[in-house]
Amino acid sequence: MRTALVRRAVIPSAVLGLALTGAPATAHAKPAPRTNAPIKVSLTVQGPDGTLFTGRIRTKGHEVTTATGGTHKCDGTNGGAHPSAVPTPTAALDDAARKRHFTWDGTWYPSFDDFSVDTIKNVSGGASAYWNISVNGVSTPVGGCQFQLKAGDQVAFTWTSF
């Protein structure tokens, strides 16, 4: 009888111990990093006749307003690209334009949940050119409100004819 009581006490204790050993330690887990913390990036805008802007910009994802496209989020959550807000190339362009007093405009495409940059400093892409977005020398595979920037990235908007 005594052996049966000991087994009844030991087995549940062992199972509970194993369960707690495999459980994640949440009491001491680090909080998730702020993904939309402001970062500094280098931004270059290259027009058909030369550089229109170059400089370091502090940016984070935020709502963007253009004359043609209206006001929309531009924080990496566009199109479900990221689960939380992050800095983006188009947000960086918008911050540069506001801080350095130049204009840009873009059309909003609901089907892409993103802007198409049409004009920067009165230079339009038009029917034969467009504004290509690249980060660290590589064209972005998604829109400028969907691509996540990291501190120190080299962002370029380049007038590209076709």
Explain what the structure shows.
With 162 residues, the protein is α+β, with helices and mostly antiparallel strands. The chain has a single domain, classed as Ferric Hydroxamate Uptake Protein, Chain A, domain 1, CATH 2.170.130.30. It is 20% helix and 38% strand. The chain is built from two helices and ten strands, in the order αββββαββββββ. It has helices spanning 2-22, 89-100; strands at residues 39-47, 50-59, 62-66, 70-74, 104-109, 114-120, 123-124, 129-135, 138-139, 154-161. The strands form three sheets. Strands 2-1-10-8-9 form a five-stranded mixed beta sheet. A hairpin with a 2-residue loop joins strand 8 (129-135) and strand 9 (138-139). The radius of gyration is 25 Å and the shape is globular.
Could you give a quick summary of the protein structure above?
Residues 117-160 form the Transcobalamin-like C-terminal domain. The protein is of the alpha+beta class and 162 residues long. It is built from 2 helices and 10 strands, in the order H-E-E-E-E-H-E-E-E-E-E-E.
